[in-house]
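FW: tagging you since you asked about this chain on Friday. Here's the raw sequence from the shared folder, copied in full. Didn't touch anything.
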Amino acid sequence: MSGILYVTGTPIGNLSDLSPRAAETLEKVDFIAAEDTRVTLKLLNHLGIKKPMVSYFEHNKRERGEIICARIEQGESCAIVTDAGMPCISDPGEDLIKLCAARGIRTEVVPGPSAVIAALAVSGLATGRFTFEGFLSVNKKSRSEHLQSLLRETRTMIFYEAPHKLPATLRDFYAVFGDRRLSIVRELTKAHEEVIRTTTAYAAAHYADGSVRGEIVLVLEGYSQPEEAPAYTLEAAVALAKEQMAEGKKATEAAKEAAAATGFKKNEIYRELML
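HL: got it, structure written out here
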């Protein structure tokens, strides 16, 4: 009888966030597929659990995926974990889930902390609709195409970023999106957790010096259509000029100010005033 793959969420910083169900799952499975066995070993030691582990990460996922699935098909159960948070989200575990689906292997999810949702929740930005964009490419062309494709994205956007790449990303955000609200969320659930609610313009000027460290999630305000200026009629423009004249301004000066406010030509407004 085939076993089960348990997609198991782990803490993103604070070990106390591990759920009782996740701890129970790690205890009962036959083996664990871990992104970095050294990181997972610290968690297991904290829980007092000893369990065989298989290394499963980006550069060995195809070979190890086949091995893991073969073991499950032979009746063993496996928990897949990432270094922090929910596996299979912006994570090589995505491939393992696809492989299990193709081979008819049963999967169960054991939900846990997610940096994406945690950062969004404290960002102060709209949470009703959002899009997770993961890490931006280090390739300039791919990076530029990715950002340009989001120029008119109306949903709140969430990105992961490494501290050493943050300065360039903040400058790119301002260059592509202009001035928008931005939350820089760092070190979630850890001792130095911080939420910097700012704007792309301010961040590019003040936080692109490399001083912001730690694990970083960026939450960016979506695009909103600029409000159009109210359309004036010539009659409204003339009325505005008359208000200026009532305050003591000369007709030429009043016509000039009304023209600047309404878009009509000064001579048009002045001519109407003189009728």
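FW: The first strand starts at residue 4 and ends at 8.
HL: agreed, and The chain has a mean pLDDT of 93.
FW: great, closing this out.
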